[in-house]
């Protein structure tokens, strides 16, 4: 391109080279419009997918009772796997402790290593009628209720510390009611009595308690508090001192102590292991200790548990299933010493 000045005017003359200069300039992409449309389509698709995912999530949150919690039947008496949660507070899995495993109410099956017995059957049935998810857990009974020689009986560490929701198979007593609350009983209370070495003169001379030693089991309702509350039946009201009340962790140890002469009597209920091995004293030896028979013990603040348990237990006890569970004390669990249906159950 050349410029000429003619009469004060600037004239521009295009040359061949200027045309070639223009031809070498880069061209704008011809596909820019098409690319924009593709990007727009991708953005729209992403938005649609995100909205669909949000809708699915909201619908899922609005549904209740769709979560299935399965507890194996073999897991220490776990509830039947047909029970499911409801999406509210019933999603909670309630844990119920069993601590007594020596009788047909509760024992450890040698073949399977699992808990069996009346208490496990009752707990599973109540949970079923209450449409609750429950687990049976095994723990030493002193973690439910603790009584030690020379100490005030008190709530066990496990139940007080909320390791589990309740302990089942426990009798309501005056001192336990000061700490815990109880469900309605599902069985009759056992008469309590004194037991001596079979054939011993102590069987008939039990009223002469001066200097005599009595063995009791840790955690049981047949404790020194009950003995002293009924001391007028033995010692004209003189309390039993701590050196005369000997505590044992296991009933086998107590029986051995009686048979060896280390102590004079064992104090327990009529259905316990001690009653199977020793001889009940003659005369009128019944010593009332319990307010009521076996039930489920829980913390006083656990009213939600108590409400649904009592309601479900009431429904269960009105059915033939309760009677069947009671008969299984002898039919299914009768190979283990313990209770009979007629003495133990409300049938």
Brief write-up:
The chain is α/β, with parallel strands linked by helices. It has helices at residues 16-23, 32-62, 118-129, 157-160, 174-177, 224-229, 251-260, 273-277, 303-317, 320-331, 341-344; strands at residues 2-6, 9-13, 93-98, 102-103, 106-108, 115-116, 133-138, 145-146, 154-155, 166-173, 180-182, 192-196, 214-217, 245-248, 265-269, 279-280, 290-299.
Span of the ends, CA to CA: 121 Å
Total strand count, please? 17
Q: Approximately how much beta-strand content do the residues carry? A: 15-25%
Biggest sheet: strands side by side, in what order?
7-3-10-17-11
Oligomeric form: single chain
The gyration radius over C-alpha positions equals 39 Å
Any overview of this molecule?
It is a single chain. The chain has 11 helices and 17 strands. A hairpin with a 7-residue loop joins β8 (145-146) and β9 (154-155). The chain starts with a strand and ends with a helix. With 347 residues, it is α/β, with parallel strands linked by helices. The strands form 5 sheets. The protein has a 5-stranded mixed beta sheet. The longest helix has 31 residues, at 32-62. α3 crosses α9 and α3 packs antiparallel against α10. Mean pLDDT is 79; it is low at 1-32 and 58-88. The radius of gyration is 39 Å and the shape is elongated.
């Amino acid at each position: 391109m050349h410029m000429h000045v003619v009469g004060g005017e600037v004239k521009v003359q295009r040359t061949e080279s200027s045309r070639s200069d223009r031809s070498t300039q880069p061209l704008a992409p011809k596909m820019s419009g098409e690319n924009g449309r593709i990007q727009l389509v991708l953005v729209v698709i992403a938005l649609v997918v995100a909205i669909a995912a949000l809708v699915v999530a909201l619908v899922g949150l609005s549904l209740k009772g769709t979560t299935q919690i399965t507890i194996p039947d073999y897991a220490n008496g776990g509830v039947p796997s047909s029970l499911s949660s409801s999406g509210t507070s019933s999603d909670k899995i309630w844990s119920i402790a069993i601590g007594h495993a020596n009788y047909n109410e509760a024992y450890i099956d040698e073949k399977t290593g699992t808990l069996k017995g009346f208490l496990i059957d009752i707990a599973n049935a109540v949970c079923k009628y209450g449409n609750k998810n429950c687990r049976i857990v095994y723990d030493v009974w002193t973690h439910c209720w603790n009584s030690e020689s020379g100490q005030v009986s008190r709530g066990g560490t496990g139940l007080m510390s909320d390791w589990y929701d309740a302990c089942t198979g426990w009798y309501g007593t005056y001192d336990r009611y000061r700490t815990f609350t109880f469900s309605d009983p599902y069985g009759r209370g056992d008469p309590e009595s004194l037991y001596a070495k079979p054939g011993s003169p102590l069987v008939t001379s039990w009223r002469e308690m001066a200097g005599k030693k009595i063995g009791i089991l840790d955690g049981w309702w047949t404790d020194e508090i009950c003995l002293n509350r009924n001391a007028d039946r033995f010692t004209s009201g003189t309390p039993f001192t701590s050196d005369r009340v000997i505590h044992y962790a296991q009933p086998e140890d107590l029986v051995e102590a009686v048979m060896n002469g280390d102590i004079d009597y064992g104090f327990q209920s009529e259905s316990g292991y001690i009653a199977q091995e020793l001889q009940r004293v003659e005369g009128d030896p019944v010593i009332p200790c319990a307010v009521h028979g076996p039930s489920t013990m829980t913390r006083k603040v656990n009213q939600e548990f108590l409400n649904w348990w009592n309601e479900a237990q009431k429904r269960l006890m009105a059915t033939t299933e309760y009677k069947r569970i009671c008969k299984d004390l002898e039919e299914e669990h009768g190979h283990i010493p313990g209770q009979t249906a007629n003495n133990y159950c409300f049938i």
